[in-house]
C-alpha cells in the first residue's frame, strides 16, 4: 500500500490540522492542511526547516540555515498509509485541502493515490516551482501556490529558478506566484523574473519574509509601495499574527 511521509506536530503526530489559509489568493478560507516532509531546496530563512534539515544527512554540516538548528529525523517524520491520511483529513470536516511541505511534489506517486480518495476536495498545492505535477496529481488540483526562491534564499538560481518550469506555470491559470521578499532588491529580482518568464502580474504576490507580526508589518509598509509601482498583489501571513511561528497552525 502507498504511503506518505509527513512532518510531525509538537506532539509527534502527523501535521494534519484545520485552520484558515494564511497566505496568497485563498487567505482567510477555512481548510485542512497536510504538511509533507522532505525538500529539494534549502532556504536560509525557511520556517519549516524541521521538514528537511536532519542530523546525519549526507551533507556535513547540513544544508545552511540561519538558525543553525538541526532536527532528529525520527522525531520529525512519520510515515502513514494513504487510507489513514485520507481518514485524518476527512475527520476535520473541511472541503478545502492545502498540501504543503517541504516540497510536496517530491511524493507525487503517493499523493496521486491520496487525492483519488478525496474526490470532493478543493485542492491547493504549495510548491517551490522546481517541478510540475504528473498527470495523476494534476487532474485533482484546483490551485497551485508557486513560491519560486530568490537569491536571498541562498539557493543557486540553476536549482531554484528553472525556466521551463516557470513558463509552464505561467500559462496555467490555476497557478499563482508568491515571492518571499525582505528588501527592495528582492522586488527588483521579482520584476526581472516576471518579464523574463511572462508571469501574469495579476497572479503575482509579494509576501514579506518574517516570523513575527512586527517584522511583517514593517516590511508590508514598503511592499505596499512596490505593489503599486509594479502592479503586483500583496500577501500577508495571517497565521503568524494569529498563532505565531508554531507547528499545526
TrEMBL record:
* Role: Catalyzes the complex heterocyclic radical-mediated conversion of 6-carboxy-5,6,7,8-tetrahydropterin (CPH4) to 7-carboxy-7-deazaguanine (CDG), a step common to the biosynthetic pathways of all 7-deazapurine-containing compounds.
Q: Which domain of life is it from?
A: Bacteria
Domain Radical SAM core: start-end pairs: 26-245
Keywords carried by this UniProt record: 4Fe-4S, Iron, Iron-sulfur, Lyase, Magnesium, Metal-binding, Queuosine biosynthesis, S-adenosyl-L-methionine
Report residues binding [4Fe-4S] cluster: 39, 43, 46
Q: Which residues form a coiled coil?
A: none
**Designated name of the protein:** 7-carboxy-7-deazaguanine synthase
**Catalyzed reaction equations:** 6-carboxy-5,6,7,8-tetrahydropterin + H(+) = 7-carboxy-7-carbaguanine + NH4(+)
Its source organism is Pontixanthobacter rizhaonensis
Q: Does the keyword Lyase apply?
A: yes
- State the Pfam families in the record: Radical_SAM (PF04055)
Amino acid at each position: 500500500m502507498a504511503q506518505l511521509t509527513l512532518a510531525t506536530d509538537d506532539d509527534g503526530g502527523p501535521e494534519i490540522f484545520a485552520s484558515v489559509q494564511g497566505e496568497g489568493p485563498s487567505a482567510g478560507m477555512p481548510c485542512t492542511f497536510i504538511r509533507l516532509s522532505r525538500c529539494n531546496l534549502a532556504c536560509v530563512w525557511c520556517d519549516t526547516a524541521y521538514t528537511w534539515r536532519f542530523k546525519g544527512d549526507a551533507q556535513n554540516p547540513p544544508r545552511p540555515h540561519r538558525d543553525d538548528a538541526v532536527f532528529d529525523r525520527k522525531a520529525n517524520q512519520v510515515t502513514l498509509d494513504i487510507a489513514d491520511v485520507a481518514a485524518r483529513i476527512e475527520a476535520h470536516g473541511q472541503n478545502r485541502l492545502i498540501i504543503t511541505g517541504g516540497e510536496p511534489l517530491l511524493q507525487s506517486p503517493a499523493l496521486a493515490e491520496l487525492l483519488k480518495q478525496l474526490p470532493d476536495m478543493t485542492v491547493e498545492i504549495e510548491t517551490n516551482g522546481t517541478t510540475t505535477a504528473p498527470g495523476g496529481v494534476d487532474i485533482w488540483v484546483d490551485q497551485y501556490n508557486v513560491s519560486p526562491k530568490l537569491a536571498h534564499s541562498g539557493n543557486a538560481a540553476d536549482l531554484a529558478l528553472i525556466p521551463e518550469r516557470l513558463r509552464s506555470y505561467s500559462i496555467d491559470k490555476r497557478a499563482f506566484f508568491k515571492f518571499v521578499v525582505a528588501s527592495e532588491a528582492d522586488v527588483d529580482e521579482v520584476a526581472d523574473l516576471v518579464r523574463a518568464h511572462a508571469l501574469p502580474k495579476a497572479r503575482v504576490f509579494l509576501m514579506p519574509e518574517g516570523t513575527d507580526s512586527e517584522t511583517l508589518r514593517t516590511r508590508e509598509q514598503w511592499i505596499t509601495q512596490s505593489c503599486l509601482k509594479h502592479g503586483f498583489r500583496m500577501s500577508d501571513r495571517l497565521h503568524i499574527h494569529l498563532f505565531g511561528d508554531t507547528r499545526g497552525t
